[in-house]
Amino acid sequence: xKQSTEVRLxxxxxxxxxxxxxxxxxxxxxxxxKRFVRKGKTRLDQxxxxxxxxxxxxxxxxxxVARNIIQGSVKASIQKEIKRFIIKKISVLNYGExxxxxxxxxxxxxxxxxxxxxxxxxxxxxxxxxxxxxxKAMDLRRIKSDIIKESxxxxxxxxxxxxxxxxxxxxxxxxxxxxxEETSEQKEEPVKEEAK
Length: 196
What we know:
Layout: E1 5-15, E2 18-28, H1 30-36, E3 43-51, E4 57-66, H2 72-91, H3 95-103, H4 106-115, E5 121-131, H5 137-169, H6 177-195
Antiparallel strand pairs: 1-2, 2-5, 3-4, 4-5
Helix pairs in contact: 2-4, 2-5
């Protein structure tokens, strides 16, 4: 499977006659992607920019192929979960740990496990991975701002869902209709006696 993947490396350090390299990019060959996608399946592509624990900006393009054709609301849920998971996961990893996680498919395995709770998937893979080495300070600030906004949205949505769960667990209070009827009957009784 990895024969259809192109990897870009850069020499980061040289010790004697040995050179240490660093992963700066990874791309799945387009012809192999076509073999993944068949009729009667839905393909989703999601691009996510994130920042590692050691302040390196990366771009990931995630490829998703569902087992069947899925509707718009399910698509939106999957795309939202991809973005949430990737940003949160990468923020706690340094660049070396992230590179290892991508090369050995650890990241996509965890992501697929999360997404399969929304809808069964056939394929979940990193279509492209790139280290953004030539970002301007302004671009870095904008990416950080976007990530903070996205994190706040996730927190709000999680708080809302927790409130909904709590409200669903609470037993509904029945309106005291019988008591109202009884009190109205009690008020009517002395009026009848006076009429007699």
